[in-house]
Specification:
Elements (H helix, E strand, L loop, with lengths): L2 H10 L1 E5 L7 H17 L3 E5 L8 H4 L4 E4 L10 H8 L9 H8 L1 H10 L7 E5 L8 H8 L3 E5 L9 E3 L2 H11 L5 E6 L5 E7 L2 E2 L3 E4 L7 H5 L5 E3 L6 H17 L5 E8 L5 E7 L9 H8 L4 H10 L4
Length: 314
């Protein structure tokens, strides 16, 4: 082991790479976690896999872990609950804190904050399971336009999302989304390409533009389809790239994001960007966007994993 890897091993101590869990994103989390675990071990870091579905997090103390690299996507890992538990256990962890994690996980409150700050985000409405009236779907379609995106407020990886083009479809989509969350975001569909920007230690990495022949960039397009295309560089001019990076960084900070994360956006036919959501524990699989942006910035996967782990050193 060379001096650089020895220094890293000493700096970080015993690391738990936490992945798996109980959320609807368990499959993706397992893939992200295992990829990161292999990368950290490859540079000499004393990293170990830890699945909270198999053992209580109190084992982190009993097994004398020095810090946690959070690779848990979705509820229970990305929503502030794990971050709060780790703070009570006095164990350092990667990424955003309790407030930033909770806010970014909630698409509705994220949009409300961005809207209040004057940051561009698509027109929207909210459906609550306890008070939803199917008869309101016609009015919602008139207000939001011919196409409406239906999203559970607190799910990731496009789980439970549907594109509705009629009041009948909208009602069905909302009822389906209620299976995942009692609050559902109804968002005006922005016609145009989708972009994403990785934020790492306060800096924006090169943007990525995604293209899919599917109805939209859904779960299958993200993790299973071979027809999804990724463009990095994304084709923007230097000024547009700078503007997009600045907008994404501002949006991430607005919800108290810190350490690392990703901001997703759409661009309409007139060239206007609209913020979609912020992710505080983005995917780190072989098809994931953050490693792609890091590669364009000159970072290997292992270097990226170490940089993310570094965010646990507060």
């Amino acid at each position: 082991m060379n001096k650089m890897t020895t220094d890293k091993a000493v700096q970080f101590g015993k690391v738990a790479v936490m992945f798996g869990g109980h959320s609807a994103e368990r499959e993706v989390s397992l893939r992200s976690g295992n990829a990161v675990l292999d990368a950290l071990q490859s540079v000499g870091i004393d990293a170990h896999g830890f699945d909270p579905a198999d053992q209580p997090i109190s084992q982190l103390v009993e097994q004398r872990f020095d810090r946690v690299m959070i690779m848990l996507h979705g509820k229970g890992g990305e929503d502030g609950s794990l971050q709060g538990a780790l703070q009570l256990l006095k164990i350092p962890y990667t990424g955003s804190g309790v407030l930033g994690s909770a806010l970014a996980m909630d698409k509705v409150r994220t949009k409300q904050i961005w809207q209040t700050l004057g940051l561009p985000t698509a027109k929207y409405q909210i459906a609550e399971k306890r008070s939803f009236d199917a008869g309101s779907c016609e009015v919602i379609m008139r207000d939001l336009g011919d196409i409406v995106m239906v999203k559970p407020a607190q799910e990731g990886s496009s789980i439970g999302m549907t594109k509705a083009t009629s009041a009948t479809q909208l009602e069905t989509a909302i009822q389906d989304a209620f299976k995942y969350d009692s609050t559902v975001l109804l968002e005006q569909f922005i016609q145009g390409p989708e972009y994403t920007v990785t934020i790492l230690n306060g800096e924006a990495l090169p943007s990525i533009r995604m293209s899919t022949p599917r109805t939209f960039y859904d779960y299958a397009a993200k993790y299973h389809s071979d027809s999804t295309e990724y463009f990095c560089p994304s084709g923007l001019s230097a000024d547009e790239e700078s503007m997009l990076g600045s907008l994404s960084t501002s949006a991430f900070l607005a919800v108290d994001g810190s350490g690392w994360g990703r901001v997703d956006l759409m661009r309409d036919q007139q060239g206007q960007f609209y913020l979609l959501e912020a992710n505080t524990v983005p995917g780190m699989t072989e098809k994931s966007l953050v490693p792609m942006a890091a590669k364009q910035a000159g970072m290997s996967f292992a270097e990226l994993a170490v940089a993310i782990l570094q965010t646990s050193v507060r």
